[in-house]
Amino acid sequence: MRILISSLGFAYHHVMAAANRCSPDKILLATVNPEADRVKNAVEEVRIYGRRLGVEVSVVKLNPEEFWSCVQEATGFFTQNATYFLDVGGGVRALSLCLLTAALLAITFLDARIERVYTMAEHSERIVEADIRPVLYAKRLADSRAFSKRELLTKLASGGADWGRYGRLLLREFAQYGLADDNGLTEAGRALAKIIELSTAKSTAST
Questions:
Q1: Neighbours of 128 (CB within 10 A)
Q2: pTM (predicted TM-score)
Q3: Which of 48, 118, 136, 207 is the most exposed place for a label (fewest CB within 10 A)?
């Protein structure tokens, strides 16, 4: 099961753009005011799109002004045994923040599989796609027993040598979570390596 969760306001094209990229079996639309005429119109357009492709579409109302209640309810969206995609390209910004916070908590506490986050770059009116798998892996890297993984990641980022068979095994694991590909570390892998370096430097400075 592939589920796309989208924040929805008056616009709806971002939902379809995200769905075209992730091919969901189900679309869950989260909105602040489903009774508003323009929101109803947006929902209907997504329903028409869903019927054409055989995709189930449902709607839920959230109130991001009650932020943590909103986060609590939204975290419940990520409890199924499914692969999730999150689109925060529409609706009010507070709702997008609520959904993103819920997604990160679901990754941490529910082991939710959230592969991509989509949003809009307003200056170019283009959809931005973020691979969320590195966030899933960050929790593993933060484990005190993952020193070798952190060391390999930072060495690869600085152009360090391969570690033989063990290094190749870790590289395959990195690739599974979007940190590496056939050309070496991805942008996400380099970003996490830099964050690890910052964390190490901070720990060293405080001792």
A1: 11
A2: 0.83
A3: 207
Whole-number pLDDT of residue 206: 74
The neighbouring-strand residues paired with 60 are 30
Query: Are 192 and 153 a contacting pair, CB within 8 Å?
Result: yes
Measured between alpha carbons, how far is residue 80 from residues 72, 76, 134, 158 in Å? 15, 9, 21, 39
**Residue 99 and residue 86 in contact, taking contact as beta carbons nearer than 8 Å:** yes
Q: Does domain 2-131 have CATH number 3.40.50.11700?
A: yes
Judge contact between 80 and 114, C-beta under 8 A. Answer: no
> 161 pLDDT exceeds 70?
no
Q: Taken in order 125, 131, 136, 139, is the CA torsion positive or negative?
A: negative
Residue 207, pLDDT > 70, answer: no
Q: Which two tokens stand for residue 137?
A: 């892996």
